[in-house]
Amino acid sequence: MAEDKEVLLTKEGLHKLENELEHLKSVKREEVAERIRQAIAFGDISENSEYEDAKNEQAFIEGRIITLEKTLKNARLMKDNEIRTDIVSLGSKVTLMDTKTSREFNVVLVSSVESKIREGKISDESPVGKKILGQAVNSIVEVDAPAGVINYKILRVEK
Questions:
Q1: Which of 23, 63, 135, 17 lies closest to 7 in space, CA to CA?
Q2: What is the DSSP string of 65-129?
Q3: Is 37 helix (H, G, I), strand (E, B) or coil?
Q4: CA-to-CA dists, residue 124 to 116, 128, 134, angstroms
Q5: pTM of this prediction?
Q6: How much is the pLDDT for 1?
Q7: CATH 3.10.50.30 region(s) of the chain?
Q8: Which numeric CATH code is attached to 7-77?
Q9: Residues of the chain with CATH 1.10.287.180
Q10: What pLDDT score was predicted for residue 73?
Q11: Phi then psi for 158, rounded to 5 degrees?
Q12: Rounded alpha-carbon distances, angstroms, from residue 24 to 8, 45, 89
């Protein structure tokens, strides 16, 4: 991520990132430090897999802390009036319909750092997100997918 790239976050996304950062700093750091202390107590650390595993986890946690701190430093909370209902914008709740199967589903368009496909939150940088961004209700977008081209009709755009 570029050092000065603004990250637009929903209120929920901002809280989740802040909570994750706090948890990593106050809980996970201490847990992994304790694992390292215990592994050292076993003796020779040169062939101690528990020690290696704990050190790898520590590196991951510290890397994630750095990433979260950078993201939050560049974060700007999305204002409610920035979420549009005339066209799809960041923060919009969108009802899409697969034109071939008539299957309907809902997504929320969010920044890539908030994206959680299992929760229906898709990134504005994803193939579907890129296609629906800026589109109005009743627009049909064509998305290239591994299984072929899929056409989606935008049925609703809400806050």
A1: 17
A2: HHHHHHHHHTEEEPPGGGS-SSB--TT-EEEEEETTT--EEEEEEE-TTT-BGGGTEEETTSHHH
A3: helix
A4: 12, 8, 10
A5: 0.75
A6: 43
A7: 81-158
A8: 1.10.287.180
A9: 7-77
A10: 94
A11: -135, 170
A12: 22, 25, 32
CA neighbor of 29 nearest in space, from 68, 59, 69: 59
Residue 3 pLDDT grade (very low, low, confident, very high; cuts 50, 70, 90): low
Q: CATH classification of 81-158, choosing from 3.40.50.1820, 3.10.50.30, 3.40.50.300, 3.10.20.740?
A: 3.10.50.30
Mean pLDDT in residue range 100-118: 93
Q: How confident is the model at residue 2 (pLDDT cuts 50, 70, 90)?
A: very low
The pLDDT of residue 147 is above 90:
no
Residue indicated by tokens 């592994």: 39
State the chain's mean pLDDT as an integer.
Answer: 91
